[in-house]
Amino acid sequence: MTKWTLRCESCGGEKVLDVGFNLYEFKRVYIYCPKCRANTFHIVVGHEEQSE
Ligand SMILES: [Zn+2]
Q: Residues 5-26: pLDDT tens digits?
């Protein structure tokens, strides 16, 4: 699994998402933002490989 750091384009809030696929293939990801309390576009700002 890879931990992806995503930043909401609306509020600038960051969230971490655990997914098994490469989010760099997507320019933007449309997911729920808890701050906006709505689905918004998020950009990928970084990732972290998990060793286990
Ligand atoms: Zn937001």
A: 999 999 999 999 998 889 989 8
CATH number, domain of 42, equals 2.20.28
Q: How far is the CA of 15 from the centre of ligand 1 (A)?
A: 9
**Whole-structure pTM value:** 0.83
Query: How far, in Å, from the CA of 37 to the mean position of ligand 1?
Result: 7
Can you give the residue range of the structural domain that contains 40?
Answer: 2-49
Sign (positive/negative) of CA torsion 43, 5, 45, 10? positive
9, 40 Cβ separation under 8 angstroms: yes
Whole-number Å distance, alpha carbon 47 to ligand 1 midpoint, is 19
For residue 52, report the distance from its CA to the centre of ligand 1, in Å. Answer: 30
